[in-house]
Amino acid sequence: MTETIELGDICIAVTRKPVKNVHLSVHPPDGHVTLVAPSSTRLEVARAYAISKLAWIKTQQAALTAQQREPARKFIGRESHYVWGRRYLMTVIELDQKPSVVLDHRTIRLSIRPGGPPEKRAEVMHEWHKSLLHRVVPSIIRKWEQTLGVSVSRYFLQRMKTKWGGCTPEAGTIRLNTELVRKPKDLLEYVIVHEMMHLIEPKHSPRFFELMTEHYPAWPEARRELNELPLADELWKLADSP
């Protein structure tokens, strides 16, 4: 059951679930707010918590309003694309052969069969993005497996509309958003460390953030940089309350 809390012009959707802690989130693109609370939480208690975070909510909403948005990608010539944080211009070549993508200096050369639909161009680019991630993700995981003393049984690359990553601790798996290929590699590493840390501490508890600070002290700066980079036309999760 979903209820609402109104704080002036801010409307917060409240959902009770079998969780241990309260999770307050501000979501793009319009800055709507959700609050997930333990099942036994009374609405007035949830309201008091939301009031205590009111300044934070307004700060996150202001950041969303100011944050740059990228236009929807059409995969056409002279269109800007980003790989590992660097900007490239796309060149499209129609050839009657298997589609391919080549990075050439500051140009992305997309070869596609004549008459193919735009969806095919997006599909070819997505597969290329996954291939780039597959080249670097395993070594980052191995590095942090040794540091953290954990083991990742498998990782998955997928389109994710609301998160940069995810973890299933009981299965030892992590998930990574394929859009991370467009961000600097150090931000990819931050997301991987964040998700691997959930193999030690499944929740965003105080202990989780203590462990992040111990092993990856720059995590607040990395999270802030990731949130400040231009958003794609899809919807990304900006932040959970601290």
Structure write-up:
The protein is an alpha/beta fold and 242 residues long. Helices cover 36% and strands 27% of the residues. It is built from 6 helices and 12 strands. Strands 1-2-4-3-12 form a 5-stranded mixed β-sheet, with helices on one face. Helix 3 packs across helix 4 (185-197). The longest helix has 31 residues, at 118-148. It is globular and about 65 Å long. The two termini are 25 Å apart. Residues 233-242 have low confidence and may be disordered.
Tell me the strand order in the biggest sheet. 1-2-4-3-12
Sum up the overall morphology in one term. Answer: globular
Number of DSSP strand runs? 12
Question: For the terminal residues, how far apart are their CA atoms?
Answer: 25 Å
Query: Gyration radius, to the nearest Å?
Result: 20 Å
The largest sheet is:
5 strands, mixed
